[in-house]
Amino acid sequence: DADVTQTPRNRITKTGKRIMLECSQTKGHDRMYWYRQDPGLGLRLIYYSFDVKDINKGEISDGYSVSRQAQAKFSLSLESAIPNQTALYFCATSVGTGAYTQYFGPGTRLTVL
Amino acid sequence: GQQLNQSPQSMFIQEGEDVSMNCTSSSIFNTWLWYKQDPGEGPVLLIALYKAGELTSNGRLTAQFGITRKDSFLNISASIPSDVGIYFCAGPVSGGSNYKLTFGKGTLLTVNP
Fold first, then answer.
1. Which of A59, A68, B31, B65 is deepest in the core (most CB within 10 A)?
2. What is the reported pLDDT for A72?
3. DSSP-derived secondary structure letter, B51
4. Which residues, numbered 23 to 52 in chain B, qualify as contacts with chain A under a Cβ-Cβ cut-off of 8 Å?
């Protein structure tokens, strides 16, 4: 089984709808991240969390919110989706102390019409 | 902020050819990570580099941590069709204590059989 899972894998929605993307991990890592990928722009950090009580904004957090429900779960919400939020979204985890390596989920392809 | 510049942006090569790509920055990094993203999947770590001048191999892949600590190189020897994908370099954001990574925009590799 995959260590980092994301649901759904694909989602099509309409402008103005509220959307939640979910991420679960079985790696036992404390740190979790949400990224957005657009063609030619690489990976950009939306939010990150170092533990259940710690949430931090990344470089492009406007229009997004997150919830760390448990060590293993980190959800990303789009309160009112807009077309320019159409992108690939990735969740990642890392051990944290002493290690920078991040492990990615398979991604969610979101289309906002 | 710290930026990683990857080149080339894309490469079209014949099976069996060797590939070279690089990542540069105006800032010093103390860790370099190379990831590969297969089509439709999340990035997977290929090689991690921790010391200036370090040369590390993973099968047909070899990566080097530049002596200036401002660049890194990835080489693929005798390319095969499954090498197709996007290759990203990444390094810890300045300070490093928050365990955030900054990513290059990627090199898209296409291998013609």
1. B65
2. 96
3. S
4. 31, 33, 35, 40-45, 48
